[in-house]
Amino acid sequence: MNEQLKQRIMRRLSTLADDRGYQILDFVEFLESKYASRAAPSNLFAKISEGIEDTMRAARIPIKAISGTTGLVDSAGKVMKGVAAAAQSVVDEAIQAAESPKPAPPAPADAPKVVPPKTAE
User: Fold this and answer.
1) How does DSSP classify residue 52?
2) Among the four residues 11, 25, 90, 94, which has the most C-beta atoms within 10 Å?
3) Domain count, the chain
4) For residues 49 and 39, is the Cβ–Cβ distance under 8 A?
5) Residues of the chain whose pLDDT is less than 70?
6) At CA 32, angle to CA 30 and CA 38, rounded to 5?
């Protein structure tokens, strides 16, 4: 879908109440299952969030509660992405450090000879 069409749809959706938004979502999911040429996102947290949202909608839980819950799950997903990115960075740095050649230890410098002081006899 081109960006201009997405923006036009978003402008129309922003004026609707949440319950109408869920009706539109149902219709879009129907169209997606029938005509989609691309697979739905495989993000684990997106799947979990959608599953929770669908279960809550089926139980006729108020929309504000659903929105709050899915917002928390989305926030948790963002935190986990940050943690995963940080962990990946640490692993990459460890691999880089392990693969880089070790610098040769400095050659021992010839130490100057220490001459003991002359003592008066």
Assistant:
1) H
2) 25
3) 2
4) no
5) 37-42, 102-115, 120-121
6) 165
